[in-house]
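Dear colleagues,

As part of the handover before I leave the project, I'm documenting each prediction I ran so the next person doesn't have to rerun anything. This entry is a single chain, and its sequence is reproduced below.
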Amino acid sequence: MQFLIPLPLTAGMILAWSVCLDPGHGGSDAGAVGIYYMEKEANLDVAFLARSYLEQLPECETVSMTRDSDRYVSLVDRVEYANAGGYDRFISIHHNAFNGSVQGTETYCDTDGSPESFALRDITHPYIVEAFGYTDRGVKTAGFYVIKYTEMPSILGEASFLDYITGWDESWRFYTQWQDHSGIEGWAYCAGLCENLLSPVTPQYLSRVVDNSYPSFTTEGPNRWDLGYYGAPFGPDYAWINVSGTVHTARWNPYIPVSGLYDVSLWWVSGSNRATDARFIVHHQNGENEFIVDQSTGGEEWYSLGSFSFPEGTFGWVEISSEGCTPGPVIVADAVRFMNVPVGIEGSHPPALEQAISISPNPALSSVRIELFGFSAVSRIGIYDISGRLIDEVLSTHPNSNVFLWAADACDPGVYFTFAGSDESGTLSGRVVILER
């Protein structure tokens, strides 16, 4: 997968553009149903990740979504929303279903669509095919409502068959984010749009942005965080709260596509009422680092905290906390970017360590002790059933400890697998047997 796609700059190129993403189905309309995941969930995951890449482009002024949560939106409402916004492009994101034995990628435009719709379809389709490497079922036309009645160039993608179970379980790949399944599809839609609209480059695949409006952004504390619209937030808005005697936190938790070194950068909107001592904590592969940031100045551009090692998956995050801040001012939680930093072959690498995993007792009845050796500190591990479904995540017993206690009381007897990942040491898995109680 290419990181940057140079494209020719031509006379009349669009210098600024907008796009409406349409995650199909939602709410009471599940769409295709797999064993582990439903189409409405996969569509929304892909849309958010496509948005994460598109919002990094200076020339992409607006990225909107017909739904940003699990709710039902009628076809009429989707079309009216897109037409009212006057977007330059419309992409409806779907996943197919048939009989469990068919797999492949299709991309549609309306049968009577504009030449621009046909061009968008033909340019985007190869990127989606390359993302998954599934059977190329071709570019097609159909009279689907959302691409028939939208006024801008529009396409509908069916990237895969969610109910496919013959060679593998496609719904499991979405459920576990196998090889960054949703992320690579979201990047493909972004890449197609960039080529269609003559954007000079496509954002790096190995980069992720988490905005305060994304599902992977969460807040904690006794009071609700408010939304602000002043200035130039990264997305449609930003979250803020007054520093008080109680502790409030917000957390950005991306899915890191490949283990490695990532630059962590912040985006906020500054103001005279902002805290000068906002407390940020980066939780990474080797522990955590704390930073005090002055949010009363700067802002509205990326502010780098440095580069840190992150393992693949959701094992790293960034947090902002009001703890220790001067009471009264406002702390702002907007967006955090995680961008991969290439490491040349001449760079220093830690020596290889003997890797081992200890699981005891094994077989077990309930509580299982898991310890890793030859790994830098790992904060959590995943527990999977025999079919590959993630059923639990276990935190280490102490900071900088590679000891985990898994309470397996609620699990049925059988075989399970524990998985740990480290960019220095690779990955390691162990087999756990739970006996009849």
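Confidence is low (pLDDT under 50) at residues 1-14, 345-354. The first helix runs from residue 39 to 54.

All the best with the project,
I.
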